[in-house]
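Sat 14:20. Reprocessing the chain from the morning session after the first attempt stalled halfway. Input below, unchanged.
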Amino acid sequence: MSQRNTLVRSLHDLGLSTWFGGSLMGAVGLNGATGRAADPTERTRLSSLGWKLWSPVAAGAIGAHAVGGAGLILANRRRIDQHGGTAANTWTKGGLTVAAAGLTAYAGLLGRTVEAESEHGAEGATEPSPAASDKLASAQRQLKIVQWAIPAVTGVLVVLGAQQGEQQRPSQQLLGRLPGRH
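Finished this time. Tokens:
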């Protein structure tokens, strides 16, 4: 029987890397570029359009990561049960994945508010103008935090995935199986 999990590992890793990279590019590139539009109403309209176009890709990436993660947990359930460090890492990754998905969903809700209020204009994609409505200003301030939190949390997930890869080294496997080493 094959011990390879190439498909689920690829779904897990490609999904996460797409989610991380796309959210970071959006926070840096898309928001940065649209903040330079000459017309203040174009700043929020264009950023909203860009994030809306990204949303289906992000949803697919999150889904691929989740399916891949579930497949890896299933394939490695014995190792997770026997090696305490792997179990702790897996539970931490699961919690952070749920948190990142929640942040992503919340960013989508805030983005819809910004889009609906885009006629008020703004200093930048996530920087309200002094004349912005309270609703727009609040959504933009929250969105600025959330849009940076997503790549921060998914970046931690990348690091935890690397740690799990290190836990698969033969020496780490042996240590995890020794009595009293959980």
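The chain has six helices and two strands.
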